[in-house]
Design brief:
This protein folds into 4 domains: about 5-125, no CATH class; about 135-175, Orthogonal Bundle (Arc Repressor Mutant, subunit A); about 175-205 and about 220-260, no CATH class; about 270-349, no CATH class. Helix content is about 65%, strand content about 0%. It is mostly helical and about 350 residues long. The chain has helices spanning about 5-10, 20-30, 35-40, 55-70, 75-80, 90-95, 100-105, 110-125, 135-145, 150-160, 160-175, 185-205, 230-240, 245-260, 270-285, 295-300, 305-320, 330-349. The longest helix has 22 residues, at about 185-205. The chain starts with a helix and ends with a helix. This is TTF1 factor. It comes from Melospiza melodia (Song sparrow). One of its GO terms (cellular component) is nucleolus. One of its GO terms (biological process) is termination of RNA polymerase I transcription.
Length: about 350
């Protein structure tokens, strides 16, 4: 199949296919296209976004079955073969002979590449090493001075994941201020977010910018664009006095305030109505996992608020009303709120 034909066929399953590189299209045509067509016959749409608990279990099952089939003795060897140079040739041969790409993606209607990355995250022992010690922080600063932002190299030296070392360095290098945000800091944050969003939207589609000069509105970009992932390390550098996580939390609070326009949605009678609506809508979704919930639709049903705000309200609900909630599945929490909490809230209202 030629490149244009492959891109055209993939567009049925991946709307943003025009933004994917030619080399990735070639790989997807070989690894994914037939899978996508088979899932379509089964009435299953190609998924993106966060993986569900069910999908994570399937990935674990696929990896464990492949290990049993090939005799490779650990998931780390299978997924991080470069860490075992003496076994590399044997592992690559076994992967080819036993169709690793097909086996690891069985039963999961997602692009193979995303499944592979998710498997690496699940099975990387370097992801779960707890807090950094003082000695590790000093090593991290030393390695970054030697190797710059080569996080792959540094992660190997530190036996931590790439993301972990990058985010930790971002945190410890900043002149962190834990006090209240000043007006100057907030303005720097707003300016940085505005610039990166404007640049990203302009690159994707010049027509997707709404009017940036509306004097009567703070919503200078279409609402749905405000929720997308932002380059927080870049924004951190622009602000200068806060590390990336603080910038993200502050932006979420600013965004919530702007989009609610000062409405007291979660107080008094309005607060009760909001809790009731949230529980009912969550129950109606019949979702087995939080990642299956369309939080944007929920935010629209409750008020003009960010989905992160709605998610935080759900968190408060389960912590406040659901006993032993950490031991329950997502669907069990929703069922409890619907059966036990909802009647009490309605009676109170």
């Amino acid at each position: 199949m030629d490149l244009d034909a492959a891109r055209q066929e993939l567009e049925e399953f991946i709307p943003h296919v025009k933004n994917i590189s030619d080399s990735s299209i070639k790989k997807m045509a070989g690894r994914d296209l037939m899978r996508f067509k088979e899932f379509k016959k089964q009435g299953m749409a190609v998924r993106f976004g966060r993986f569900t608990q069910k999908e994570n279990k399937q990935i674990r099952k696929n990896v464990e079955e492949f290990l049993a089939l090939t005799g490779i003795d650990s998931a780390e060897k299978l997924l991080f073969t470069s860490r075992y140079p003496s076994d590399k040739d044997t592992i690559h041969r076994l992967k080819t002979e036993h169709h690793f790409c097909e086996k690891i993606s069985e039963g999961i209607p997602r692009p193979w590449r995303l499944i592979y990355y998710r498997a690496r995250k699940i099975f990387d022992p370097n992801n779960y090493k707890g807090r950094y010690t003082k000695e590790e922080k000093e090593k991290l600063k030393k390695y970054q001075a030697l190797h710059g932002n080569d996080w792959k190299k540094i992660s190997e030296l530190m036996s931590r994941s790439n993301l972990s070392v990058a985010m930790k360095f971002s945190e410890i290098k900043s002149a962190i201020n834990y006090g209240p945000w000043t007006e100057e800091e907030t303005q720097k944050l707003m300016s940085a977010v505005k610039d990166v969003l404007r640049r990203k939207l302009t690159a994707e589609n010049a027509n997707s910018l709404s009017s940036l000069e509306q004097p009567d509105s703070d919503l200078w970009i279409e609402r749905e664009q405000l929720y997308q992932a932002l380059p927080w390390t870049e924004i951190e550098a622009r602000v200068g006095s806060r590390y990336w996580r603080q910038c993200k939390q502050k932006w979420n609070s600013v965004l919530t305030r702007k989009l609610t326009r000062g409405q007291k949605l979660y107080r008094g009678t309005n607060g009760l109505r909001t809790k009731i609506t949230l529980i009912k809508r969550l129950y109606e979704t019949k979702a087995e996992d939080a990642s299956e919930v369309n939080w944007d639709e929920l935010s629209n049903a409750i008020g003009d608020v960010p989905r992160g705000y709605v998610q935080s309200k759900f968190y408060r609900l389960k912590v406040s009303f659901v006993p032993l909630w950490k031991r329950r599945t997502f669907s069990e929490i929703i069922d409890y709120l619907h059966e036990k909490t909802l009647p009490d809230l309605e009676e109170k209202l």
